[in-house]
From TrEMBL, chain A:
Its main location: membrane. It is a multi-pass membrane protein. The chain crosses the membrane at residues 24-50, 81-104, 116-140, 166-190, 222-241, 273-293. It comes from Nonomuraea polychroma. Belongs to the binding-protein-dependent transport system permease family. It is found in: Cell membrane. GO terms for biological process: transmembrane transport. Keywords: Cell membrane, Membrane, Transmembrane, Transmembrane helix, Transport. Residues 81-294 form the ABC transmembrane type-1 domain. Gene3D superfamilies: MetI-like. It holds the Pfam family BPD_transp_1. This is Carbohydrate ABC transporter membrane protein 1 (CUT1 family).
From TrEMBL, chain B:
PANTHER family: ABC TRANSPORTER PERMEASE PROTEIN MG189-RELATED, ABC TRANSPORTER PERMEASE PROTEIN MG189-RELATED-RELATED. Its main location: membrane. This is Carbohydrate ABC transporter membrane protein 2 (CUT1 family). Residues 65-254 form the ABC transmembrane type-1 domain. Gene3D superfamilies: MetI-like (1.10.3720.10). The lineage of its organism: Bacteria, Bacillati, Actinomycetota, Actinomycetes, Streptosporangiales.
Amino acid sequence: MTLTLSRPGRVAVGRRSLVTKRNIPYLLVLPALLGFVGFKAYPIVAAMYISLTTGAGAARSFVGLDNYVRLVNDPLFWTSLWNTGLILVVQVPIMLLLALLLALALNSSLVRLRGLWRLGVFMPSLTGLVAYGVMFSVILRKDAGLLNWLLSLFGVDAIDWLGSPFWARIAIVIALTWHYTGYNAVIYLAGLQSIPKDLYEAAMVDGAGSARRFWSITVPQLRPILLLTVVLSTIGTLQLFDEPFVLTGGGPDNSTLTISLYLYQNGFRYFDFGYAAAIAYALTLIVAGFGIAQMRMQKR
Amino acid sequence: MKGWALTFVLAAVFGLCVGPFYWLAMAATHANSDIFSWPPRFYPGDQLVANTAKLEESIGLVNVLGNTLFVAVVQTAGAIVVSLLAGYAFAKFQFVGRNAFFVLLLSTLVIPGGVTIIPIFEMMNDFGLIDSFPALILPSLSVPFGIFLMRQSLLAIPDELLDAARVDGAGELRVLWRVVIPVMRPVLAALAVFLFLGAWNDFLWPLIALRTPEMYTLPVALATLQGLARTDFGQVMVGTAISSLPMMVLFLVLQKQFISGLLAGATKG
Protein backbone atom coordinates (compact mmCIF):
# COMPACT_ATOMS: atom_id res chain seq x y z
CA MET A 1 0.00 0.00 0.00
CA THR A 2 1.56 3.24 -1.06
CA LEU A 3 -1.26 5.74 -0.82
CA THR A 4 -3.91 5.80 1.84
CA LEU A 5 -6.79 8.18 1.99
CA SER A 6 -7.10 8.64 5.73
CA ARG A 7 -9.34 11.68 5.70
CA PRO A 8 -11.11 13.52 2.91
CA GLY A 9 -8.59 15.70 1.20
CA ARG A 10 -5.62 14.30 3.07
CA VAL A 11 -3.10 11.86 1.75
CA ALA A 12 -0.71 9.85 3.90
CA VAL A 13 2.29 8.31 2.26
CA GLY A 14 3.88 4.85 2.61
CA ARG A 15 4.57 3.27 5.99
CA ARG A 16 3.68 6.50 7.71
CA SER A 17 0.06 5.48 7.21
CA LEU A 18 0.30 2.84 9.96
CA VAL A 19 2.42 4.44 12.67
CA THR A 20 0.73 7.76 13.16
CA LYS A 21 0.31 9.63 16.37
CA ARG A 22 -3.33 8.60 16.36
CA ASN A 23 -2.54 4.92 15.89
CA ILE A 24 0.13 4.58 18.53
CA PRO A 25 -2.15 3.67 21.44
CA TYR A 26 -3.91 1.06 19.32
CA LEU A 27 -0.61 -0.47 18.30
CA LEU A 28 0.46 -0.55 21.93
CA VAL A 29 -2.65 -2.43 23.07
CA LEU A 30 -2.76 -4.68 20.00
CA PRO A 31 -0.79 -7.61 21.48
CA ALA A 32 -2.90 -7.53 24.63
CA LEU A 33 -6.06 -7.27 22.54
CA LEU A 34 -5.08 -10.27 20.41
CA GLY A 35 -4.40 -12.31 23.53
CA PHE A 36 -7.67 -11.21 25.04
CA VAL A 37 -9.74 -12.05 21.98
CA GLY A 38 -7.95 -15.32 21.21
CA PHE A 39 -7.59 -16.77 24.67
CA LYS A 40 -10.33 -15.15 26.75
CA ALA A 41 -13.24 -13.72 24.75
CA TYR A 42 -13.37 -16.36 22.02
CA PRO A 43 -13.00 -19.34 24.40
CA ILE A 44 -15.70 -17.98 26.69
CA VAL A 45 -18.15 -17.80 23.81
CA ALA A 46 -16.95 -21.08 22.31
CA ALA A 47 -17.38 -22.84 25.65
CA MET A 48 -20.98 -21.67 25.73
CA TYR A 49 -21.55 -23.28 22.34
CA ILE A 50 -19.66 -26.46 23.28
CA SER A 51 -21.80 -26.79 26.39
CA LEU A 52 -24.82 -27.10 24.09
CA THR A 53 -23.31 -29.93 22.07
CA THR A 54 -22.20 -33.50 22.47
CA GLY A 55 -19.32 -35.37 20.84
CA ALA A 56 -16.23 -33.71 19.41
CA GLY A 57 -14.79 -32.69 16.07
CA ALA A 58 -16.84 -33.89 13.08
CA ALA A 59 -19.08 -35.97 15.34
CA ARG A 60 -20.18 -32.91 17.32
CA SER A 61 -23.93 -32.36 17.37
CA PHE A 62 -26.16 -29.74 18.90
CA VAL A 63 -28.24 -31.01 21.80
CA GLY A 64 -29.60 -27.80 23.30
CA LEU A 65 -29.78 -27.79 27.06
CA ASP A 66 -29.35 -31.57 27.45
CA ASN A 67 -26.01 -31.19 29.22
CA TYR A 68 -27.49 -28.79 31.75
CA VAL A 69 -30.48 -31.09 32.38
CA ARG A 70 -28.02 -33.95 32.89
CA LEU A 71 -26.00 -31.73 35.24
CA VAL A 72 -28.96 -30.93 37.47
CA ASN A 73 -29.79 -34.65 37.71
CA ASP A 74 -26.21 -35.76 38.29
CA PRO A 75 -25.66 -36.77 41.92
CA LEU A 76 -21.87 -36.59 41.45
CA PHE A 77 -22.14 -32.94 40.42
CA TRP A 78 -24.10 -32.19 43.58
CA THR A 79 -21.52 -34.11 45.60
CA SER A 80 -18.74 -31.99 44.10
CA LEU A 81 -20.73 -28.84 44.81
CA TRP A 82 -21.31 -29.91 48.41
CA ASN A 83 -17.66 -30.82 48.94
CA THR A 84 -16.49 -27.51 47.52
CA GLY A 85 -18.97 -25.57 49.66
CA LEU A 86 -17.96 -27.51 52.76
CA ILE A 87 -14.27 -26.78 52.27
CA LEU A 88 -15.15 -23.13 51.58
CA VAL A 89 -17.20 -22.68 54.73
CA VAL A 90 -14.66 -24.39 56.97
CA GLN A 91 -11.34 -23.39 55.49
CA VAL A 92 -11.67 -19.74 54.47
CA PRO A 93 -12.77 -18.38 57.89
CA ILE A 94 -10.11 -20.41 59.73
CA MET A 95 -7.40 -19.28 57.36
CA LEU A 96 -8.32 -15.60 57.34
CA LEU A 97 -8.64 -15.47 61.12
CA LEU A 98 -5.24 -17.12 61.51
CA ALA A 99 -3.79 -14.75 58.92
CA LEU A 100 -5.12 -11.73 60.79
CA LEU A 101 -3.72 -12.93 64.12
CA LEU A 102 -0.42 -13.67 62.43
CA ALA A 103 -0.30 -10.22 60.85
CA LEU A 104 -1.02 -8.58 64.20
CA ALA A 105 1.78 -10.55 65.81
CA LEU A 106 4.18 -9.80 62.96
CA ASN A 107 3.34 -6.12 63.28
CA SER A 108 3.97 -5.98 67.02
CA SER A 109 7.02 -4.00 68.00
CA LEU A 110 7.48 -6.32 71.00
CA VAL A 111 8.50 -9.20 68.75
CA ARG A 112 12.13 -9.96 67.99
CA LEU A 113 13.41 -11.12 64.56
CA ARG A 114 10.26 -10.00 62.79
CA GLY A 115 11.90 -10.08 59.35
CA LEU A 116 12.84 -13.73 59.72
CA TRP A 117 9.35 -14.86 60.81
CA ARG A 118 7.79 -12.83 58.01
CA LEU A 119 9.98 -14.55 55.45
CA GLY A 120 9.25 -18.04 56.75
CA VAL A 121 5.51 -17.49 56.95
CA PHE A 122 5.43 -16.41 53.32
CA MET A 123 7.46 -19.36 52.02
CA PRO A 124 4.64 -21.90 51.69
CA SER A 125 2.79 -19.71 49.20
CA LEU A 126 5.79 -19.83 46.88
CA THR A 127 5.64 -23.59 46.54
CA GLY A 128 4.35 -25.04 43.34
CA LEU A 129 1.19 -27.07 43.73
CA VAL A 130 2.76 -30.30 42.62
CA ALA A 131 5.71 -29.81 44.94
CA TYR A 132 3.52 -29.14 47.88
CA GLY A 133 1.06 -31.84 46.93
CA VAL A 134 3.86 -34.38 46.86
CA MET A 135 5.20 -33.04 50.15
CA PHE A 136 1.86 -33.32 51.86
CA SER A 137 1.01 -36.74 50.46
CA VAL A 138 4.16 -37.97 52.18
CA ILE A 139 3.66 -35.98 55.38
CA LEU A 140 0.08 -37.24 55.64
CA ARG A 141 0.79 -40.94 55.12
CA LYS A 142 -0.83 -43.18 57.66
CA ASP A 143 2.25 -45.31 58.20
CA ALA A 144 5.38 -43.37 59.01
CA GLY A 145 3.99 -40.05 57.88
CA LEU A 146 5.53 -36.99 59.49
CA LEU A 147 2.27 -35.68 60.94
CA ASN A 148 1.29 -38.98 62.50
CA TRP A 149 4.77 -39.23 63.99
CA LEU A 150 4.35 -35.75 65.47
CA LEU A 151 0.96 -36.75 66.88
CA SER A 152 2.35 -39.98 68.27
CA LEU A 153 4.65 -37.91 70.49
CA PHE A 154 1.45 -36.73 72.15
CA GLY A 155 0.03 -40.23 72.33
CA VAL A 156 -2.41 -39.87 69.44
CA ASP A 157 -3.07 -43.02 67.39
CA ALA A 158 -2.21 -43.03 63.69
CA ILE A 159 -4.83 -41.26 61.59
CA ASP A 160 -5.68 -42.44 58.08
CA TRP A 161 -5.48 -38.91 56.63
CA LEU A 162 -5.95 -39.73 52.98
CA GLY A 163 -7.87 -42.98 53.33
CA SER A 164 -11.00 -41.99 55.22
CA PRO A 165 -13.61 -39.60 53.78
CA PHE A 166 -13.74 -37.49 56.95
CA TRP A 167 -9.99 -37.12 57.45
CA ALA A 168 -9.33 -36.62 53.74
CA ARG A 169 -11.42 -33.45 53.87
CA ILE A 170 -9.56 -32.31 56.97
CA ALA A 171 -6.29 -33.05 55.16
CA ILE A 172 -7.31 -30.80 52.25
CA VAL A 173 -8.22 -28.05 54.73
CA ILE A 174 -4.85 -28.40 56.48
CA ALA A 175 -2.96 -28.31 53.19
CA LEU A 176 -4.83 -25.23 51.98
CA THR A 177 -4.35 -23.45 55.27
CA TRP A 178 -0.65 -24.21 55.26
CA HIS A 179 -0.28 -22.94 51.73
CA TYR A 180 -2.25 -19.68 51.78
CA THR A 181 -2.32 -18.33 55.35
CA GLY A 182 1.04 -16.61 55.08
CA TYR A 183 0.08 -14.99 51.80
CA ASN A 184 -3.00 -13.42 53.38
CA ALA A 185 -1.05 -12.49 56.49
CA VAL A 186 1.42 -10.50 54.38
CA ILE A 187 -1.47 -8.68 52.69
CA TYR A 188 -2.97 -7.85 56.11
CA LEU A 189 0.42 -6.77 57.37
CA ALA A 190 0.71 -4.22 54.59
CA GLY A 191 -2.79 -3.03 55.44
CA LEU A 192 -1.89 -2.68 59.11
CA GLN A 193 1.20 -0.70 58.27
CA SER A 194 -0.76 1.75 56.15
CA ILE A 195 -3.04 2.72 59.06
CA PRO A 196 -1.97 6.19 60.24
CA LYS A 197 -0.14 5.98 63.56
CA ASP A 198 -1.74 9.15 64.94
CA LEU A 199 -5.14 7.41 64.99
CA TYR A 200 -3.76 5.08 67.66
CA GLU A 201 -1.98 7.86 69.49
CA ALA A 202 -5.15 9.94 69.66
CA ALA A 203 -7.10 6.94 70.94
CA MET A 204 -4.48 6.26 73.62
CA VAL A 205 -4.66 9.87 74.76
CA ASP A 206 -8.41 9.38 75.07
CA GLY A 207 -7.68 6.34 77.27
CA ALA A 208 -8.79 3.57 74.86
CA GLY A 209 -7.47 0.09 75.81
CA SER A 210 -5.87 -2.28 73.29
CA ALA A 211 -9.13 -4.20 72.67
CA ARG A 212 -10.99 -0.96 72.10
CA ARG A 213 -8.28 0.28 69.72
CA PHE A 214 -8.45 -3.00 67.80
CA TRP A 215 -12.22 -2.89 67.29
CA SER A 216 -12.57 0.85 66.75
CA ILE A 217 -9.52 1.55 64.61
CA THR A 218 -7.83 -1.56 63.24
CA VAL A 219 -10.91 -3.46 62.06
CA PRO A 220 -12.67 -0.53 60.33
CA GLN A 221 -9.44 0.60 58.70
CA LEU A 222 -8.67 -2.92 57.46
CA ARG A 223 -12.23 -3.51 56.26
CA PRO A 224 -11.62 -3.05 52.51
CA ILE A 225 -8.61 -5.38 52.62
CA LEU A 226 -10.46 -7.93 54.75
CA LEU A 227 -13.30 -7.99 52.24
CA LEU A 228 -10.88 -8.24 49.36
CA THR A 229 -9.23 -11.32 50.83
CA VAL A 230 -12.64 -12.85 51.48
CA VAL A 231 -13.59 -12.35 47.84
CA LEU A 232 -10.26 -13.66 46.50
CA SER A 233 -10.21 -16.68 48.82
CA THR A 234 -13.81 -17.51 48.00
CA ILE A 235 -13.21 -17.37 44.26
CA GLY A 236 -10.02 -19.38 44.68
CA THR A 237 -11.70 -22.06 46.78
CA LEU A 238 -14.62 -22.37 44.38
CA GLN A 239 -12.07 -23.25 41.70
CA LEU A 240 -10.12 -25.62 43.93
CA PHE A 241 -8.36 -28.22 41.81
CA ASP A 242 -4.71 -28.91 42.47
CA GLU A 243 -4.83 -30.08 46.08
CA PRO A 244 -7.50 -32.75 45.64
CA PHE A 245 -5.97 -33.73 42.31
CA VAL A 246 -2.56 -34.40 43.78
CA LEU A 247 -3.48 -35.47 47.32
CA THR A 248 -6.61 -37.58 47.02
CA GLY A 249 -7.65 -37.70 43.36
CA GLY A 250 -11.10 -36.75 44.64
CA GLY A 251 -11.40 -39.80 46.88
CA PRO A 252 -11.93 -41.67 49.02
CA ASP A 253 -15.51 -42.33 47.97
CA ASN A 254 -15.68 -38.92 46.18
CA SER A 255 -15.40 -37.13 49.51
CA THR A 256 -12.91 -34.58 48.12
CA LEU A 257 -14.27 -34.37 44.58
CA THR A 258 -14.45 -30.63 43.81
CA ILE A 259 -16.27 -28.92 40.93
CA SER A 260 -13.06 -28.18 39.05
CA LEU A 261 -11.80 -31.72 39.54
CA TYR A 262 -15.10 -33.09 38.23
CA LEU A 263 -14.81 -30.72 35.26
CA TYR A 264 -11.30 -32.00 34.56
CA GLN A 265 -12.36 -35.64 34.84
CA ASN A 266 -15.22 -35.21 32.37
CA GLY A 267 -13.21 -33.12 29.95
CA PHE A 268 -9.82 -34.75 29.95
CA ARG A 269 -10.34 -38.24 31.27
CA TYR A 270 -13.65 -39.10 29.55
CA PHE A 271 -13.25 -36.46 26.81
CA ASP A 272 -16.87 -35.46 27.24
CA PHE A 273 -16.21 -31.83 26.28
CA GLY A 274 -19.85 -30.78 26.06
CA TYR A 275 -20.61 -31.90 29.58
CA ALA A 276 -17.36 -30.47 30.95
CA ALA A 277 -18.17 -27.11 29.36
CA ALA A 278 -21.61 -27.18 30.99
CA ILE A 279 -19.94 -27.80 34.37
CA ALA A 280 -17.57 -24.91 33.63
CA TYR A 281 -20.48 -22.60 32.97
CA ALA A 282 -22.25 -23.71 36.12
CA LEU A 283 -19.02 -22.95 37.99
CA THR A 284 -18.82 -19.51 36.35
CA LEU A 285 -22.36 -18.74 37.46
CA ILE A 286 -21.54 -19.74 41.02
CA VAL A 287 -18.31 -17.75 41.10
CA ALA A 288 -19.98 -14.70 39.56
CA GLY A 289 -22.88 -14.98 42.03
CA PHE A 290 -20.52 -15.09 45.01
CA GLY A 291 -18.41 -12.32 43.57
CA ILE A 292 -21.34 -9.99 43.01
CA ALA A 293 -22.85 -10.73 46.42
CA GLN A 294 -19.59 -9.98 48.17
CA MET A 295 -18.98 -6.81 46.17
CA ARG A 296 -22.45 -5.65 47.18
CA MET A 297 -21.58 -6.22 50.82
CA GLN A 298 -18.39 -4.28 50.32
CA LYS A 299 -20.30 -1.30 48.93
CA ARG A 300 -22.62 -1.12 51.92
CA MET B 1 0.85 -10.79 75.58
CA LYS B 2 4.47 -10.23 76.44
CA GLY B 3 7.05 -9.90 73.68
CA TRP B 4 8.84 -13.16 74.39
CA ALA B 5 5.58 -15.11 74.37
CA LEU B 6 4.63 -13.63 70.99
CA THR B 7 8.09 -14.33 69.66
CA PHE B 8 7.77 -17.93 70.81
CA VAL B 9 4.41 -18.33 69.05
CA LEU B 10 5.85 -16.86 65.85
CA ALA B 11 8.85 -19.16 66.05
CA ALA B 12 6.47 -22.13 66.33
CA VAL B 13 4.49 -20.92 63.30
CA PHE B 14 7.78 -20.45 61.47
CA GLY B 15 8.64 -24.05 62.29
CA LEU B 16 5.33 -25.29 60.89
CA CYS B 17 5.84 -23.28 57.70
CA VAL B 18 9.49 -24.02 57.05
CA GLY B 19 9.72 -27.44 58.75
CA PRO B 20 8.28 -29.36 55.80
CA PHE B 21 10.88 -27.81 53.47
CA TYR B 22 13.67 -28.79 55.81
CA TRP B 23 12.36 -32.33 56.10
CA LEU B 24 11.93 -32.46 52.31
CA ALA B 25 15.53 -31.42 51.76
CA MET B 26 16.69 -34.08 54.23
CA ALA B 27 14.47 -36.75 52.67
CA ALA B 28 16.04 -36.02 49.28
CA THR B 29 19.35 -37.30 50.67
CA HIS B 30 18.02 -40.65 51.91
CA ALA B 31 17.11 -43.90 50.20
CA ASN B 32 13.43 -44.66 49.64
CA SER B 33 13.40 -47.27 52.41
CA ASP B 34 14.82 -44.85 54.98
CA ILE B 35 12.53 -41.91 54.24
CA PHE B 36 9.74 -43.58 56.17
CA SER B 37 11.69 -44.72 59.18
CA TRP B 38 10.40 -43.69 62.60
CA PRO B 39 11.48 -41.37 64.05
CA PRO B 40 11.87 -39.35 60.82
CA ARG B 41 15.44 -38.57 59.75
CA PHE B 42 16.05 -34.90 60.33
CA TYR B 43 19.69 -35.21 59.35
CA PRO B 44 21.34 -35.51 55.92
CA GLY B 45 22.02 -38.92 54.38
CA ASP B 46 24.34 -39.98 51.58
CA GLN B 47 21.90 -40.80 48.79
CA LEU B 48 21.52 -37.38 47.15
CA VAL B 49 23.69 -38.25 44.16
CA ALA B 50 22.07 -41.66 43.73
CA ASN B 51 18.57 -40.21 43.95
CA THR B 52 19.41 -37.50 41.44
CA ALA B 53 20.85 -40.08 39.05
CA LYS B 54 17.68 -42.17 39.36
CA LEU B 55 15.56 -39.10 38.71
CA GLU B 56 17.59 -38.30 35.59
CA GLU B 57 17.02 -41.86 34.43
CA SER B 58 13.26 -41.85 34.95
CA ILE B 59 12.21 -38.38 33.78
CA GLY B 60 15.32 -36.97 32.08
CA LEU B 61 15.87 -34.34 34.74
CA VAL B 62 18.23 -32.16 32.71
CA ASN B 63 15.92 -32.09 29.70
CA VAL B 64 12.82 -31.44 31.82
CA LEU B 65 14.56 -28.63 33.68
CA GLY B 66 15.60 -27.12 30.37
CA ASN B 67 12.00 -27.27 29.11
CA THR B 68 10.65 -25.66 32.26
CA LEU B 69 13.24 -22.92 32.27
CA PHE B 70 12.76 -22.15 28.56
CA VAL B 71 8.97 -21.96 28.82
CA ALA B 72 9.07 -19.90 32.02
CA VAL B 73 11.62 -17.40 30.68
CA VAL B 74 9.94 -16.89 27.29
CA GLN B 75 6.48 -16.68 28.84
CA THR B 76 7.64 -14.19 31.48
CA ALA B 77 9.50 -12.00 29.01
CA GLY B 78 6.61 -12.03 26.54
CA ALA B 79 3.98 -11.24 29.14
CA ILE B 80 6.08 -8.38 30.49
CA VAL B 81 6.40 -6.78 27.05
CA VAL B 82 2.67 -7.17 26.38
CA SER B 83 1.76 -5.83 29.84
CA LEU B 84 4.12 -2.87 29.60
CA LEU B 85 2.91 -1.80 26.15
CA ALA B 86 -0.76 -2.14 27.02
CA GLY B 87 -0.31 -0.56 30.46
CA TYR B 88 1.48 2.36 28.83
CA ALA B 89 -1.39 2.86 26.40
CA PHE B 90 -4.01 2.64 29.15
CA ALA B 91 -2.17 5.04 31.44
CA LYS B 92 -0.84 7.65 29.04
CA PHE B 93 -3.08 7.80 25.96
CA GLN B 94 -6.65 8.68 25.15
CA PHE B 95 -8.26 6.43 22.56
CA VAL B 96 -11.66 5.18 21.56
CA GLY B 97 -12.67 2.09 23.51
CA ARG B 98 -9.98 2.51 26.14
CA ASN B 99 -12.18 2.24 29.21
CA ALA B 100 -14.42 -0.45 27.77
CA PHE B 101 -11.46 -2.67 26.87
CA PHE B 102 -9.82 -2.09 30.24
CA VAL B 103 -12.95 -3.10 32.13
CA LEU B 104 -13.45 -6.16 29.91
CA LEU B 105 -9.86 -7.17 30.48
CA LEU B 106 -10.20 -6.91 34.25
CA SER B 107 -13.53 -8.72 34.34
CA THR B 108 -11.84 -11.82 32.94
CA LEU B 109 -9.96 -12.07 36.23
CA VAL B 110 -13.01 -13.69 37.81
CA ILE B 111 -13.71 -16.10 34.94
CA PRO B 112 -12.67 -19.56 36.13
CA GLY B 113 -9.82 -21.02 34.11
CA GLY B 114 -11.92 -24.14 33.63
CA VAL B 115 -14.21 -22.33 31.20
CA THR B 116 -11.54 -21.40 28.70
CA ILE B 117 -9.48 -24.53 28.92
CA ILE B 118 -11.58 -26.74 26.62
CA PRO B 119 -11.90 -24.26 23.73
CA ILE B 120 -8.21 -23.39 24.04
CA PHE B 121 -7.37 -27.08 23.92
CA GLU B 122 -9.49 -27.54 20.77
CA MET B 123 -7.94 -24.44 19.21
CA MET B 124 -4.42 -25.67 19.87
CA ASN B 125 -5.41 -29.06 18.53
CA ASP B 126 -6.75 -27.50 15.30
CA PHE B 127 -3.55 -25.53 14.85
CA GLY B 128 -1.50 -28.67 15.46
CA LEU B 129 0.17 -27.04 18.45
CA ILE B 130 -0.66 -29.65 21.08
CA ASP B 131 2.55 -31.06 22.56
CA SER B 132 4.52 -27.93 21.63
CA PHE B 133 5.92 -25.04 23.63
CA PRO B 134 3.84 -22.38 21.83
CA ALA B 135 0.74 -24.15 23.19
CA LEU B 136 2.06 -23.48 26.71
CA ILE B 137 3.31 -19.97 26.13
CA LEU B 138 0.74 -18.26 23.86
CA PRO B 139 -2.31 -18.34 26.16
CA SER B 140 -0.36 -16.70 28.99
CA LEU B 141 1.06 -13.71 27.14
CA SER B 142 -1.85 -11.36 27.81
CA VAL B 143 -2.10 -11.27 31.61
CA PRO B 144 -4.80 -8.95 33.00
CA PHE B 145 -3.04 -8.64 36.35
CA GLY B 146 0.20 -7.60 34.65
CA ILE B 147 -1.50 -5.01 32.48
CA PHE B 148 -3.34 -3.67 35.52
CA LEU B 149 -0.15 -3.48 37.56
CA MET B 150 1.71 -1.68 34.77
CA ARG B 151 -1.11 0.80 34.27
CA GLN B 152 -1.30 1.60 37.98
CA SER B 153 2.43 2.21 38.24
CA LEU B 154 2.61 4.22 35.02
CA LEU B 155 -0.16 6.53 36.22
CA ALA B 156 2.27 7.61 38.92
CA ILE B 157 4.88 8.76 36.39
CA PRO B 158 4.39 12.48 35.63
CA ASP B 159 3.44 13.27 32.04
CA GLU B 160 5.96 16.13 32.03
CA LEU B 161 8.77 13.59 32.18
CA LEU B 162 7.52 11.88 29.04
CA ASP B 163 6.76 15.14 27.27
CA ALA B 164 10.27 16.39 27.91
CA ALA B 165 11.63 13.40 26.03
CA ARG B 166 9.10 13.86 23.23
CA VAL B 167 10.03 17.49 22.83
CA ASP B 168 13.60 16.33 22.37
CA GLY B 169 12.34 14.36 19.41
CA ALA B 170 12.16 10.85 20.88
CA GLY B 171 9.63 8.43 19.36
CA GLU B 172 7.26 6.52 21.62
CA LEU B 173 9.37 3.38 21.73
CA ARG B 174 12.38 5.48 22.62
CA VAL B 175 10.41 7.19 25.40
CA LEU B 176 9.44 3.77 26.71
CA TRP B 177 12.96 2.45 26.54
CA ARG B 178 14.83 5.49 27.83
CA VAL B 179 12.40 7.05 30.29
CA VAL B 180 9.67 4.65 31.35
CA ILE B 181 11.59 1.39 31.77
CA PRO B 182 14.36 2.84 33.98
CA VAL B 183 11.78 4.40 36.30
CA MET B 184 9.67 1.26 36.35
CA ARG B 185 12.50 -1.15 37.07
CA PRO B 186 11.36 -2.22 40.58
CA VAL B 187 7.78 -2.84 39.44
CA LEU B 188 9.00 -4.73 36.40
CA ALA B 189 11.18 -6.89 38.64
CA ALA B 190 8.21 -7.61 40.88
CA LEU B 191 6.03 -8.56 37.94
CA ALA B 192 8.82 -10.70 36.49
CA VAL B 193 9.12 -12.72 39.70
CA PHE B 194 5.39 -13.05 39.94
CA LEU B 195 5.00 -14.25 36.34
CA PHE B 196 8.02 -16.53 36.54
CA LEU B 197 6.62 -18.14 39.68
CA GLY B 198 3.33 -18.79 37.93
CA ALA B 199 4.96 -20.18 34.80
CA TRP B 200 7.50 -22.33 36.67
CA ASN B 201 4.81 -23.92 38.81
CA ASP B 202 2.06 -24.15 36.20
CA PHE B 203 0.56 -27.60 36.23
CA LEU B 204 -2.95 -28.15 34.86
CA TRP B 205 -2.50 -26.65 31.40
CA PRO B 206 0.88 -28.30 30.67
CA LEU B 207 -0.60 -31.56 31.92
CA ILE B 208 -3.33 -31.28 29.30
CA ALA B 209 -1.35 -29.70 26.47
CA LEU B 210 1.73 -31.96 26.56
CA ARG B 211 1.83 -35.56 25.35
CA THR B 212 5.38 -36.85 25.10
CA PRO B 213 7.65 -37.15 28.15
CA GLU B 214 10.43 -35.35 26.23
CA MET B 215 8.27 -32.23 26.23
CA TYR B 216 7.23 -32.37 29.89
CA THR B 217 7.85 -29.55 32.30
CA LEU B 218 9.04 -30.38 35.81
CA PRO B 219 5.62 -30.29 37.56
CA VAL B 220 4.09 -32.60 34.94
CA ALA B 221 7.05 -34.98 35.06
CA LEU B 222 6.90 -35.10 38.87
CA ALA B 223 3.18 -35.82 38.80
CA THR B 224 3.71 -38.79 36.47
CA LEU B 225 6.37 -40.16 38.82
CA GLN B 226 3.97 -40.12 41.69
CA GLY B 227 1.34 -42.06 39.79
CA LEU B 228 3.52 -45.18 39.58
CA ALA B 229 2.50 -48.17 41.65
CA ARG B 230 5.66 -48.27 43.72
CA THR B 231 6.87 -44.73 44.01
CA ASP B 232 10.54 -44.26 44.70
CA PHE B 233 10.27 -41.29 47.03
CA GLY B 234 14.00 -40.63 47.11
CA GLN B 235 13.93 -39.33 43.55
CA VAL B 236 10.54 -37.69 43.97
CA MET B 237 11.93 -35.71 46.90
CA VAL B 238 14.95 -34.59 44.89
CA GLY B 239 12.65 -33.42 42.10
CA THR B 240 10.34 -31.63 44.49
CA ALA B 241 13.25 -29.92 46.20
CA ILE B 242 14.67 -28.85 42.85
CA SER B 243 11.32 -27.44 41.76
CA SER B 244 11.01 -25.40 44.97
CA LEU B 245 14.59 -24.16 45.05
CA PRO B 246 14.56 -21.45 42.33
CA MET B 247 11.51 -19.79 43.84
CA MET B 248 13.09 -19.73 47.28
CA VAL B 249 16.29 -18.21 45.96
CA LEU B 250 14.47 -15.70 43.77
CA PHE B 251 12.27 -14.73 46.68
CA LEU B 252 15.13 -14.31 49.12
CA VAL B 253 17.00 -12.12 46.65
CA LEU B 254 14.05 -10.05 45.51
CA GLN B 255 11.69 -10.20 48.47
CA LYS B 256 11.16 -6.46 48.73
CA GLN B 257 10.11 -6.05 45.11
CA PHE B 258 8.16 -9.26 45.21
CA ILE B 259 5.98 -8.32 48.14
CA SER B 260 5.42 -4.79 46.86
CA GLY B 261 4.36 -6.21 43.49
CA LEU B 262 2.04 -8.67 45.14
CA LEU B 263 0.49 -5.92 47.22
CA ALA B 264 0.07 -3.55 44.31
CA GLY B 265 -2.29 -6.14 42.94
CA ALA B 266 -3.88 -7.04 46.22
CA THR B 267 -4.58 -3.73 47.84
CA LYS B 268 -5.73 -1.89 44.76
CA GLY B 269 -7.52 -4.77 43.01
